[in-house]
Every structure is written in structure tokens, then in C-alpha cells.
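User: Write out your own:

AI:
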Amino acid sequence: MRLNKLLILPAILCLISGCQNGGENQSGPITDYDGYYQSINYDDTGSSLIHKIHDLMIDTHTKYPTYSIFNSTATYKKTCINPATNKIVNFYSGKETASYSASREHVWACANSNELWGRTDGKDIGESYQGGGADMYHIMPCSGALNQYRGNAKFYEFEEGETFYQRGDSGGKYKIKGNKDEDFCDRVEVADEMKGDVARILAYLYVHYTANFGKTNKYTGQLQINNIVYRPGTETNQYCFDKLIKWNNLDPVDEMEKNRCNEVQKEQGNRNPFIDHPEFMAKAFGLEE
């Protein structure tokens, strides 16, 4: 295996300040979070790390909620709350509200899930649905306008000179960009302040619910990363993983994500490893065959 160039910067930062949880020289099982990650070693990388993360989440995800819970203020008070203000934060826009008054956003669009989330016609999954399309790490409150505009678009990062149209949200500090000035677009780029959140949600879903990474259950199936991260025709899937790594490094884990991990574990039993250990992103996806 060869080291991807996007691992260079994280490695340098580790040498300067020490990697999370003790530095790069640690070895053996990871023992933080009350031993939740003890099945994973500090030096696990690539497919070995992906398989261990997958099996860990399958084993510890003991309750799969129904989609109906995401119509409740109480749910978002657990998963999408700003601890400093005690308000719900709408995804993409950053607008804060005291109660849920938005729409339910599938960060990994249903139509791009190989029918694993249950719908391909652009409509919501049923209220009784259980699985990745109703995972508490996945569904976010989002303004109806931005949710409609994003539609099933894949995440992207526009290059210099490319044409795009920018959409904002009144009262919010974040914006979402698309490549068409229409109600729907096929590529969107979220603000830098949201890129890490998106990357860690996508990585979680991809590893957790892809069946061929290890243990299976009735909720696992086949997810393809290039179905949700836009890949130009001349590029390989590594292009998509490189984007996840870049966005993860650009936008570090914030307090809301940490709070989500703690609260969702109480409800589902599992944690999002890419929030607890953001270095897993490069270690898992930054190594090419």
C-alpha cells in the first residue's frame, strides 16, 4: 500500500503537537470512551480499520429508531443542539431555532442510496422506516428552501473558474452553492464551516451500512461513495475519499458534534467513530492499494 499525499499534513501536525489520545507512538488497543474502541488498535489503517469500525458499529447499534422521530423538537434537542445557546441548529444554514420548524434532510440522499434508504422517487421514506435513512447521526433539520434546492445533488468542491450559483438562508451565516440556477441542482458545495460535518456523516454511513465490510444485518446493503460525492469522469473513487479527508481536516469537530455522539449513544448504543477520532478519516481512506 502507498501513502496518499493528503496524509502528509496530518502527519506533520502529529509530530508538532502529538496526535489525539497520546500521540503517534501509541500502540495497542484504543481505550478511550470507556473502552468503546478497544477492538481497534492505534496502528490499524486502510481496509483493516474500515472492517473493525464497521463491525463495532453493527455490534453496538442496538436500537434503530423509526423515521417518525425526526418530526420532534425533542429529537433535535439531542442531536442538533448548540450547547452554548440550547437552540437547534439547522443544517447548511446554521440558523438557530428554539423548536423544530424545518424539514428532514437526508445528508446521503435517498435516491443515491441504491434503494437502501427505501425511496428513489424523491419522496420521503415512510414514517415507520428503520435503518440508515433514519439513523440519528444522519437526519438533520434543514430549511425547506435549502432542502428543496439541494434535492439529490452530490457534494462537490467547485474549482477556480467554474460557474456556480449561490443560495443563502435568511438569518443564517452559511450558504449552499449549486451549479444550476434552478430549484434543483446536481452538484452542491456547502460552506467551509459545514464541510467537516458532512464528511463525517457520509463516512459514518458508508462504513456502517455497506454490507461487504464485515458483519451484516437487515439494514446493510451496497453504498457507493461516488453516488454522494461528485466524481468527475476521469477520476477514480479515491477522488471522493480525498475530498472527505480534505473536508474533515478543513472543518474540525465542534461541540455540537461531540454532544450528538454522547446523546445518540444513549438512544442507539453506537458512536460515530469519525467524530470521536477524526484521524480515522485519513487512516481509513487515505491509503491506496
